Give the backbone structure.
Amino acid sequence: MKKLLLLLVIAILGCSSTTTRNAGSPGTAVVTVAPAAPLDITGEPVSEKKKTIDWQPFHDDLIKTSIALNKPLFIYLKDKRCKFCRKMSGATFTNPVIIEIINKRFLATSIDVTESPQAAAIFYKDEVVVPKLIFLRPRENAPWIVAEATGYMDSFKMAELIDTAEKFINSKLNEGNTDKEGAGKP
């Protein structure tokens, strides 16, 4: 209970930085309260690095990096003119829980379809629809699409999609460990 009360007081005091002076008195006291750092899902302070997704530039070696790190790719296809892409960038991808999940579990890259049409063309068969989210699990032979979704996703839907993609990745990897011929091929 004391910890909860202390956290509440710190949160209230941390909302604004204040300075109190008792001018004219001997031994004038100055008290400055710095804003409290935001907390992650475990109650620990969020570091500067954790405040944003660690977006990697899209390049040819990204798949090799993903294999070397043993991390699936999270690819976000967007258009800066798209209202829902801006909404996801401003809301979903600024949520501390989503940031933590993506940074820990994926190698993330963001591609603007108008600024990098050749890169975007790799992920579209027909018409370009944004926002589009793709999860790839690269392997030595060829990358394969794990999951993809289009349209705006709030933080809750994004967390569900990530969970589903990870379950699919794990099931395919486990399949590959039990199959003898063609182990784990997409």
